[in-house]
Structure formats: C-alpha cells, structure tokens
Specification:
Layout lengths: L1 H50 L2 E2 L7 E2 L3 H7 L2 H32 L6 H7 L2 H4 L2 H12 L5 H5 L15 H29 L3 H9 L4 H12 L1 H15 L4 H6 L11 H11 L3 H29 L1
Antiparallel strand pairs: 1-2
Helix pairs in contact: 1-14, 2-14, 3-8, 3-11, 3-13, 8-11, 11-14, 13-14
C-alpha cells in the first residue's frame, strides 16, 4: 500500500509535465500567426494612437500637442460630412447588395442547364480590380462620352442627367457600383447556405400549399440568417474602406457630396501632409465600426 501511495503523486506529476509539454508545443504553432498579428495589426494601431496626439508633417519630427487634433476633428464639418456620406453609401449599398444577392442565390439554388457557368460568371466582379470596375462605370456614366447618355436620347430622353456632376446622381452611381460588387461577393456565400437547407422543409411546405414567396420568406431566409448577418457585417466593414471607386469616378465631388471618410483621411494625410491629424481621423473610425458591427448583431438577435 505504501509503495502504491508513493507512486501515485509521481505518476500525476509525470502526466502533468507531459500535458504541459503538449500544450507548450501547441502554443508554439501559434507563434507565427500571433507575431504577424502583433507586428502588422496591433503595433500600427498603437502607433496611430500615438501619432493622434502629435503634429506630424514629413519630414519634420512629431511634436506633442495633446488633444488639439481631437478638438479640431470635432470642429471639422467636412469630416462630419464625409462620415454622413459613408453611412449613406454603406446602408444603401449593403442593403441592396445583400438583398439582391439573396434573391439571385435563391434562383440559382435549383437545377438548370449552365448552372456552373453562372457560378463562375457572377463572381467575376469580386476578383476584378476596383479601379478597372470604376473605369467601366465611368465610361458608362460620363456625361459627355458615356454610353448611357448616348443611348438615352435615342429612346426619347433628350436631356439626360450629368450623372457624375450632380450630387444626388453621383452618390447614386457610387451606391450602384458598391451594390453590384456586393451582389457578386455575397451570392456564393448565400448560395452555399441555401444548398444546405434540408429539402424536407420545402417538401413539407409544398404539402401545406405554400407558394414560392412563402417558402422563401418562412424557410429560406430564417435558415440562412447567420450568413446574411455575416454578409452585412463584412459589407459594412468593406464600405467604410471604399476609396478607389471614389477616386476614379468623382474624386469626392461634386461639392464633397461623395467624399467618403477614408478618402478624406487620405487627403489630410498624404495630400496636405497632416499625418498626425490623419491618424486622429483614422483612430476615430474604429469605435464607429465597432458600434455598427455591434448594432448589426443586436438587430439580428432581436429578430430571432
């Protein structure tokens, strides 16, 4: 008995040591990913936060000015306008992009000839450069040489709008481009979710006499709701990062009507060389994105 009692603590200690070795080996595999995260994400965030309290113009050294940049930000009407423009663009393009993608995915979720071709074709806008897409839409909506203003007089509209020179229509074109890319990105996600919906649910609905719209509303949408939420959150984050399309189509005009927040931050940082102020504006976007993401999850949970 005494020998068994002495062996038990030794065996426990040995197992604990082996478990610690296994855990330590597992943590070692995380080192490269965590190092990448620390160097390329956390360090830049802390550096931007540091610069936000400084006046920094290249090639000068940063000069500490306290909260002056933040005071300037709250008094900057153009930045406020860029935030409002970004919110308008985000809500409109994400709503259209997710809604239309859900409808197209529902139509594609059936057997028909050429389905594989369409699966490749509708994804092309996602893998195409934003600059190329913006140039295509510029050639379409240019008021002098655009194909749309060339065709509209031929069908009786003799005074077509100057799309990219009118504040309302310029924003509408940006929303159209954003929604078009959003549809392309969201279709494979939502289609994959729809393909995993049990067929027995649709068969039971057929027995109850449900039509296509009722099945779409009461079966398809609830079953793919997590993927809809994912598409919304990713669309919001992507919309706040839009800048290339704005650069090519409108450059933020006319009258700052399409000046989005990232474009304005880029102007302050690299056109006007206010690096410290640009860092302040960048850091100010972080709580806005966190709040919008939290709000999306809150609305989703309330609807369950």
């Amino acid at each position: 008995m005494g020998k068994a009692t002495k062996t038990a603590p030794f065996s426990y200690a040995k197992k604990k040591k082996e478990k610690w070795k296994d855990n330590f080996t597992s943590y070692l595999f995380l080192v490269p990913a965590l190092s990448f995260l620390f160097i390329f994400m956390l360090v830049p965030i802390f550096y931007v936060f540091y610069l936000s309290f400084h006046r920094y113009r290249l090639p000068e050294k940063p000069i500490f000015i306290g909260f002056n940049n933040y005071i300037r930000m709250f008094q900057d009407d153009v930045f406020l306008k860029s935030i409002i423009n970004t919110i308008i663009y985000t809500i409109s393009s994400v709503t259209l992009g997710v809604f239309l993608a859900l409808i197209v995915a529902y139509l594609l979720n059936r057997r028909f000839r050429g389905k594989k071709f369409f699966k490749v074709f509708y994804f092309l806008p996602t893998v195409t450069s934003e600059v190329i897409i913006a140039m295509i839409f510029f050639w379409m909506f240019d008021h002098n040489m655009g194909i749309i203003n060339y065709l509209l007089p031929k069908i009786g509209i003799l005074d077509p709008p100057s799309w990219l020179l009118d504040p309302f229509w310029a924003m509408a074109v940006l929303i159209l481009v954003g929604a078009w890319r959003g549809v392309s990105y969201n279709i494979p996600i939502l289609l994959s979710a729809l393909e995993n919906v049990p067929l027995s649910l649709y068969e039971a609905a057929d027995l109850d006499g449900a039509n296509a719209f009722q099945k779409f509303k009461n079966i398809s949408i609830p079953c793919v709701k997590p993927m809809i939420l994912y598409s919304v959150v990713m669309g919001v984050i992507g919309s706040f990062q839009v800048v290339a399309i704005v650069d090519v189509l409108t450059d933020g005009g006319p009258k700052n009507s399409t000046l989005v927040s990232l474009k304005y931050i880029w102007q302050q940082s690299f056109e006007f060389n206010y690096i410290g102020y640009g860092a302040t504006l960048s850091f100010a976007l972080l709580p806005i994105l966190i709040f919008i993401t939290w709000l999306s999850f809150k609305i989703s949970r309330r609807g369950e």
